[in-house]
Amino acid sequence: MPSTPLPLVGRDKAQAVLREAITATTGGSGECIVVEGPAGIGKSRLLADAADWAREHGVAVAAGRAIELDRVVPLNTLLTTLRSVEPPILDDAVLAALTRHENSRYRLVDQLGAALESYSSDRPLAVVLDDTQWADELTSLALRIMVPTLRSLPIVWLLARRPAPARTAAADTVDWLVSEGARLVRLEPLADAELAEFCANVLGARPGPSVLNLAVGSGGNPFLLTELLATLRADGRIEIADGTAHATPGSLPVDFVTAVEQRLRDLSPDTLRLLEAGAVLGRPFTLSAAAGLLRRNGVELVDATAEAVSSGTLEDHDTTLAFRHDLLREAVYDRLTGPVKQALHLEAAAVVRAEGGPAAEVVEHFLRGTERADAAALPLFREAVAQVAPTAPGAAADLVLRMINLLDTHDPDRLRLVGDGVRLLAAAGRVAEARELGDTYLTCGLDEASEGTILLGLAEALKHAGQDRLVADYTHRALALGGVPDAVRAELLAVRAHALVQVDDVVGAGVAARSAVELGHVSGAHSAVAVGGAARSIAAYAHGDLDDAVRYARDAVALATSVGGEASHRHPRLWLARALVAIDQFTDADAMYVSDKDEADELGTVWSRPVAHQFHAELKLAAGHVDDAEAEAEAGIRIAEELSAMALSPALLATLANVAVLRDDLSAASAVLERAAQQVGEGICVMTEELSWEVALYQVAAGRPNAAFETLAGLYPQLPDRPYLIVQEPSAAPRLVAIALRVHADAEARNVVEAAGRLADRNPNVVSLAGAAQHAAGLLHRDRNALHAAVAAHRAGPRPLCRAYALEDAGLAERAAGNQSAAVALLDEAKTT
Asked: In Å, what is the CA distance from 585 to each residue of 695, 723, 775?
């Protein structure tokens, strides 16, 4: 058989696509191409050709391949690929930065993206990744973020995959990349004429009818055909006469498996054992690892190694050995009986652990090697989950689910793992699976403590998904149980408080939050105190009691800072920053958002990112930084979608609608509001004010004040007791008055003025609220002095949009009074604010 790579046959179009994309990088253009086809169809050969072409044309190449075990080792696929390039992308400084953030998947991705951006500024780069169907969860996330983010750089991404038989993070990512514009190149089986050319290249002779019949029977798969021809030639079954190759009479291998069997039967027993050990280890392996698995001395396997390499089954990669093609590994692995596989996997678990391999990989071998587990296995298992969960919660959840099935039905550890599984599934965005797991065990006659714990896990899962009505139901059910420990009860109350806010029961939320804090202090449930304190802050914020909102949030932050642990993972600082925005302390709030982002990256608490982006977008919008507000909201939506944690998505979309209305882009505003309404229709809860107000602003801008008033009709009566909207956006007060007056709803306008006045009186140090109250009163009473007082207040405050609205209305009032010069000055100032 030829030792050098054979020419590509039947791949001219695909080859041209890849070469064109590589050439484009030398001109500064980036692209992503996905090569798809079944195993053996020629994807790897095509990628190798593309990599050679890239190097010949001055393009750096980072090439790698995912393997099946990568699915449980976060970022292994991508790091292995990026380490392969010369000069290196991942120098010591980059690797040190990655190590500092090894538990924060978004910070890791940010660091890798920065490294690629820096690298490609000096030279074009081709990232060539084979077998992406096995890529780990964090590599999949990195591809989803970096490929579109870095599209303007001279980086070409060449990804190959087999069609996915099941949904995985990798499959979803590649499908998403294709939907976002990556080119899909499907490799089809070779046609009959192409098969003839291929056989001629392999055999060095024109194929005769017997060989062509064999080729057609291979299904046009180049690798399978190569193996069939190799088997025949090794058995002396290929004859060449007058330049034509013939298969001699006799039984022919009917398929690839048969061909591999025929080739393996001629190998020595030691070589077969070596191949079996390598197939079980599942990744490029050292000779010492294979020897340890077989309980042999490595020196005893030197001859076996040489035979495996010379037979073309294994390849020598300097310090490791690897199967020449994964189909060969699969064929060897499939020859093993079930009991032998189990025994070898248990040995592999010990070998990998002894070599310092990842705990998750050790556990993977353990899980494949046993049908039952007990408490002795749990420490290693928990170590693996702790390793994987911060950056790959989906992989950690899968480990938990498999371990659950290995434990006895009534094992208390199994019940505790169910709660872990529910939370991890929720963190991975697999909310439906989380609910199914929890609901399954809730029907098993659990004791009340276990039932309460699982209901808490379900409530937390549903909270991330924005299904707050279900959260309220689950927490009510759990709190009705008598045997729930106080610490769990405190956590339930805290989660319930946040859910009640979203379903517009602010009073109930305040009661639940206070109880969570009190019970959390008594039971030592610090995270419940932090979460409950944040909920108390929200309730006070909604009622307009801003000193209390700040105080409750500060207490929660102080606790989280002092005790750390789970309490710090709850990010009470976000609610403190939001309360600071309400009292016009923008600088302190902005610094707090930045520091909280750093803390979230360090802790790996990515659930908080959409919340942080929404609150930060509100601040940027209040400060008049419209572009920054849009960027924050878009980032929040992107992360929410990546996490399938959609709780904040409608609010984020509402912020984008506000931005679009400010830019007079009503079609964009309509589109995002429609998306938000669809999500609400799917059960995602949002406070009434956070969506109805943006809808009303759009309707006003579209010249439909009557529709805007109808949208807000339920809001006007509750404003004196619940001025949430004015707290969040002080300019809402005068605009609510203006909407009411345009439809002659004087009573509603008076209601707004009363609410804004009471709110300003309760918070006398907040100039924005004072300005809003004066502005609203000035519009209602046509009082130019009040409007000028509003302008003065907003000139002293940090909200330029509030100032612009007040200036405009004051200017219009002066014009109506015939004071043209004063009107022009005020209106000109409004335009430049």
From this structure: 28, 19, 21
